[in-house]
Every structure is written in structure tokens, then in C-alpha cells.
């Protein structure tokens, strides 16, 4: 599957999520640039150098005590047209 080069989605463990760290502190702990935080889901989107392999980043971050799991930031594409007969009349498309 296709993913954004150098970007990973990290799920934080409950104790790490409750700590309410700043982006900078969390970035230093993960040794990554924190691109985005999704606090409601305890998720963080991080950026790592693109020359690092996907497997090495996942292995390194999985060993971090703050991380529950990590996965690449996958790209999803819609490749089907809806079967709505009034699709052309919908506002905002």
C-alpha cells in the first residue's frame, strides 16, 4: 500500500496521552517532528527523514515506552463513482 514518505501515525499509550506533553516535548521523546496531534484518539502524526526505512522506524518507535503502536500514514483513494442517480444535481460537487 502507498503511504506518505517519512510520515507515520503513532498511537500513544494511555499514560503518555494523559501526560499532555507539548508538541516539542513529545517530538523530542519520539525523536521526530510532530506534524499533527489528534488528542481525542491519542494519535500523533510524525515526520521522520525519508531516507529511513519504514521497518526501521516502526521497530525503533515500537520500543519507545510512550508508543502503543505505529504505522505508516497510508494514502487512501476513492476509485468508484457513487450510484446516486441524482449525483449531478448535488450541491457543492
Describe the structure in your own words.
The structure is a single chain. Strands 2-3-1-4 form a four-stranded antiparallel beta sheet. It is of the alpha+beta class and 93 residues long. The chain is elongated and about 50 Å long. Strand 2 and strand 3 (43-47) form a beta hairpin. The chain has helices at residues 14-18, 23-30, 54-62, and strands at 3-12, 33-38, 43-47, 67-74.
Mean pLDDT: 89
Q: How many E-type strands?
A: 4
**Poorly predicted ranges (pLDDT <50, ≥5 residues)?**
none
List the secondary-structure elements in sequence, H or E. Answer: EHHEEHE
How far apart, in Å, are the first and last alpha carbons?
Answer: 28 Å
Features:
31% strand; single chain; alpha+beta; 93 residues; four-stranded antiparallel sheet
Write the SSE topology:
Elements: E1 3-12, H1 14-18, H2 23-30, E2 33-38, E3 43-47, H3 54-62, E4 67-74
Antiparallel strand pairs: 1-3, 1-4, 2-3
Summary, kept brief:
The chain is built from 3 helices and 4 strands.
Amino acid at each position: 500500500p502507498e503511504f506518505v514518505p517519512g510520515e507515520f501515525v503513532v498511537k500513544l499509550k494511555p499514560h503518555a496521552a494523559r501526560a499532555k506533553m507539548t508538541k516539542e516535548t513529545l517530538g523530542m521523546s519520539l525523536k521526530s517532528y510532530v506534524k499533527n496531534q489528534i488528542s481525542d484518539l491519542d494519535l500523533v502524526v510524525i515526520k521522520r527523514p525519508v531516507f529511513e526505512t519504514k521497518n526501521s522506524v516502526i521497530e525503533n518507535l515500537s520500543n519507545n515506552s510512550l508508543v502503543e503502536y505505529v504505522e505508516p500514514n497510508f494514502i487512501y483513494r476513492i476509485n468508484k463513482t457513487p450510484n446516486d442517480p441524482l449525483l449531478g444535481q448535488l450541491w457543492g460537487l
